[in-house]
Structures are given as C-alpha cells and as structure tokens.
Design goal:
By secondary structure, the chain is of the alpha/beta class. Helices cover about 35% and strands about 20% of the residues.
Length: about 400
C-alpha cells in the first residue's frame, strides 16, 4: 500500500485496515498468554477504548496449520501469523499516530511475537512496518459511509431520547405533557401564533447561527469551539431582552465629555473582554493609550450583553470621556481603585473609532482561524429554498 494512492480501503468516512505479520511458532504461546491477560484486565487497553476515531480493532493468531483451503491446496508454512483488523475515521497517518500515542506499551505487547516488530516508538519504523505488512481490501462494505463513529453514537442517543419522549407522551394527558415539556411565555397567545404560522414561509424566514471561537481538531475530527457562557447569554438576551429605560425610544446619544491631557495621563484604564472578538481587550487598551490614558489590566471576563464603564475616585472625567467612546454612560464604583477606569466590553463592543468590520479584522486572534461573521458559522442565513443545512 502506497500512502496517498487510491485505495479500496476507504468507504465514506471510514477506513478498513488489514495487517498480517509473521510470528515465530516458538513464541506464539507468549502472545496467547498476553491476549488472555488483556481480556482479564481490560484496563490495560484503556487508552485504546478511549480513542473515539476507532470503530473496531482485533488481533487474531492464525497458526500455520489453520489456514483454510480455498482450492489452493494444503500449504506447508514455516510461521504462524497475526491478523490485525480495524476500522477507523480519518487518514492512515492520523490513525497510526493516534494509536502510537494512545497505547504505545499495549501495541508492543500485542505484536510482541511478530517477526522484526520495531516497537511503536519511534513512530517512523512502526509506520514502515505496518505499511509493509498491510494488505489492501478487494471489497470494503460500510453500512453508514456518511457517518463517523461519533455521528452514529450521537444519532443513537437522539433516537433513545425521542423514544423516551414518545413513551412519556403516551402515558401523560395533553395538559400534563404540556406542563412538563412545553415552555412558553406567560403572555403568549397560542391562537394568535397559529394564525401567524400561516404566513411563516421560507421566503420570510431568516436563520442566524451562533458564533464560534475557532475551528479545532479533536481526536482527528473537525469541531467548532464555542464559548458556552457567552452563547448562553446571547440566547437568554434574545428571548428576554433587557427593557429600555422609561422615556427611551431609541439609542442613547453619545456624550460629548472632554478630559485634559493631564487627567488622561493620570488615569489607569483596566479593560476586560466580555465580547465575542478574541484579543479585543488588548486592542481597546492600545487605542486608549494612544488617546493619552495609561494602560492597566487587560484580561477576559464573563460574557456581557453591553459594555460597562466604571470609574474610581478622582477619575470621573476620564470615565465619562471613555464611556462616550462606546456610547454608554460611566458609573462610579467603590470596587474600582482610585484613579482607575474599568471598561467591561460587551457583545457589540468594538475598538473606539473603528468600524465593526475593521475592528474584527484588526483584532489578533488567539485561535487557529479568525471568527467568521457570515455564512455557516456566523451572521444571517436566508432560507430561500427551505431550511439550510449548517455544518
């Protein structure tokens, strides 16, 4: 098998591997004893059981006189053989790397009696040994080629939950089922909603995906990393928006506060990021330093729906000026040190003086991929031809 060539070993997301290695008959009994010990002590293979990319792995000892006669006639063989069969997700290299990292000692025991086995570490000789002894499949069937092991397990969990829900529905009255499983606002009018549903078509629907922090890889599989507290806050604020102050009918006008150069230089500004843009606190701190303020603490905080500006004793003018840059009002706080202003950045916060798009692109990212603002991982998705599938 040559790495990178077209292989019959692949079916959808799964790869089927067969490796046959010779064993000296005088040492076969050692591997039989090791197999018995592994079955009696499954913890010895705990690293293997925890590798979610692996569907199945089995080692089988075939003695030289046990090969089936399929018309080729009885053969006289000098060696016994170890047959290793496995199915996994990902690439060949990812699998071997994961195997070697997960149970290096276990692999050395399982292939202990195999002729010229080089040990699983270092990895290069081990890969060469597996590649040399691998036999490509002529036919590989996969009942779920479009699903990885994790997909199958997730689907089974969903199926069990649906069956449990159906059983509950059958055993409860409609009123008890509604009380237990349907959550509605106290002011929600079901009849009005039913009337509105008639005009609810794909042309009038807009779907918004929740933002992610970065793209990551977990055990060889692609995943989206999210900030759970921030997502929870976004969802809560969507369904339960904060009420506007009495008498307010629109956005609060920006203040026109001023501060002298001496006052700014004497004010230390601490910036905490509770928004969705990685690295925003550092960018805001740098922008305020350019405006003459002194840099203080720069860190993250819990997710915030709106930006807050708090100031300590002697920093009222600076607090008002900084608050005006974000279109909010400054608030005196006994928890803020004298001469300090604390800026808690909210979900919509941007670098003062920069547009939303410029701020997002200018912010350094601490993730492998910058947070997208449009498409499947953020922004609005319009359902022109039905509800879209978002990966």
């Amino acid at each position: 098998m040559e790495a990178g060539s077209a292989m019959s070993n692949v079916s959808g997301k799964a790869y089927g591997m067969n490796v046959v290695t010779p064993m000296r008959p005088s040492r076969t009994w050692i591997n039989r004893a090791l197999f018995m010990a592994a079955r009696a002590l499954p913890r010895s293979l705990g690293g293997l059981l925890g590798l979610s990319i692996i569907h199945f792995a089995r080692w089988i000892i075939i003695k030289r006189d046990q090969w089936p006669d399929l018309g080729q006639g009885k053969q006289s063989l000098q060696n016994d053989y170890m047959l290793f069969c496995s199915n996994f997700n990902g690439t060949w290299d990812q699998y071997i790397d994961t195997f070697s990292d997960g149970i290096p000692g276990g692999l050395d025991l399982l292939w202990y009696s195999s002729t010229r086995y080089p040990h699983s570490i270092p990895i290069s000789p081990f890969k060469g040994y597996i590649r040399e002894n691998q036999i490509d499949t002529d036919y590989y069937y996969n009942s779920v080629p479009g699903a990885a092991q994790r997909d199958v397990k997730s689907a089974l969990r969903v199926r069990r939950a649906i069956l449990e829900l159906a059983a509950k529905q059958a055993s409860l009255s409609p009123e008890d089922f509604r009380k237990q499983y349907v959550i509605t606002d106290s002011g929600w009018n079901l009849l009005d909603f039913a009337t509105q549903m008639r005009s609810l078509t794909s042309g009038s629907l807009s779907f918004n995906t929740l933002p992610i922090q970065s793209y990551i890889t977990i055990e060889g599989q692609s995943a989206n990393q999210v900030d759970v507290p921030y997502i929870q806050q976004l969802v809560h604020n969507t369904f339960y928006p904060a009420p506007r102050p009495s008498g307010s009918s629109g956005p609060r006008p920006k203040a026109t506060a001023t501060v002298s150069a001496a006052e700014a230089a004497a004010t230390t500004v601490d910036v905490y990021n509770g928004g969705s843009i990685p690295g925003l606190a550092g960018d805001v701190s740098a922008a305020l330093v350019k405006d003459g303020f002194k840099a203080g603490q720069v860190s993250n905080t819990t997710a915030l729906p709106a930006t807050q500006v708090l100031y300590g004793t002697g920093a009222a003018a600076s607090g008002a000026k900084i608050a005006s840059l974000f279109g909010v009002s400054a608030t005196a706080s006994a928890t803020v040190a004298p001469g300090h202003v604390q800026v808690n950045l909210g979900a919509t916060a941007r670098v003062p003086g920069a547009s939303a798009s410029a701020s997002a692109s200018a912010s350094p990212s601490n993730s492998a991929t910058a947070l997208p603002t449009t498409g499947a991982q953020g922004g609005a998705v319009i359902a022109k031809n039905g509800i879209p599938c978002v990966d």
